[in-house]
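Reading a protein record of the kind used here takes only a little practice. To see the layout at work, look at the sequence and tokens printed below.
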Amino acid sequence: MTTTTTAPLTDAEVRAMVDAWYKGLDVHAPAEDMTPFVHETDLQMRFPEATLTTVEEFRGWYEGVIRIFFDEVHTLQKLDVNLNEDGSSALVNLVVYWEASRWKAPAAKSERLLMDADQTWEVRRSPASGQPVIAVYIVNALTPRPGSVEL
């Protein structure tokens, strides 16, 4: 009998994955570069506008939002990583400051969004790649900052 073991997650690799995720969002990385960040078979992503449970749904959502928002900047304000005892998963609580522009036709100008996004993630190791991936991603609250238009 062969037993396969998976290395426990580390705080450093979870933090690096969170950072890489937001860098990809900021540059509107292609969907094929962003899908490896999400769990292949056990995914739950809850945004104010949608709940996603498959990689295909994530891809469709992502390709839609990168056509709506531009000039995006994500700045981490808080990042707490809590590994479970055996290191098989991590509960991640974070607040990210999100700036983005959007244009609604036929408006003469774009609008600027300035939001604090409070989020909870569960990160696990991908069974396929062995890398940390997002299994659960919940936007708990979006709080507009002064000067922001409504989402």
